[in-house]
Specification:
This protein is of the alpha/beta class. The protein contains 8 helices and 11 strands.
Length: 253
Amino acid sequence: MRTPDTLLANIPWSQLTYIRLHCEAPADQFLNALRQCVQAQYIDIERVKPSSLMPSVPVTLPYLTYLRVVCFTDDIITLLDDFNLPSLRTLKLVTRPLTTSRDVKGLQALAARSSCTLETLHVDDWFLPEEELIAYLSLPCLQSLRKLDIASINISERTLSLLIFPSTTSDVGGILPCLEQLHIGYITNDGLLSDVVGSRRRLTGVQNSPTSLKRVKVIFKRRRGDEPLLHDLDILHFNEFAEQGLSISWSWI
């Protein structure tokens, strides 16, 4: 963590398939190192700092299926502008950017540039504006998702209504039709989330129904202080879903 310059310059990158780097360094240093990882299948990098010296040619990693990036100082999507990842299936982004807007279209551009099929998306962005969260969920490149893990303090009725299948707020019908796992936090509304889950439980003989959810994990948000918000409707239905065989859990934070 204290000697990233020496570290990054002396690793046999071209031989590695599994890489975890938790050292503070500018994005251009990470990218110059990762450019050499032609055999990489799994990359997890943390403590990425912004850099004005970004490469002009995208970093192409032909075998990479898993990418996790933690960046607390800038919009993380701008870093993805420098990747071409044709085999990418899992993308995990953890960020607390200082800016109020996000480059939502950058994720769609990555998928189009790479011709990849995303199956898992994890976005941990507490202050993600709901308008941009909705824009994320509506992206064409995410309609193949089997697992969605989203954490934001700005999830309200609009987002949950969009996730009901078919959507009650979208003109294009149901989004994320292939979803099998949903991890979501931080919820304050009572009742709508159970509607989301219920709408994604496949019914035999019903045409155009989505893939049935197999696993759900929910984090409810507490009131100010330690008093938990009541979620009587949601929990009532969650218990029913559990009796029907759904793996479902919930907690408060």
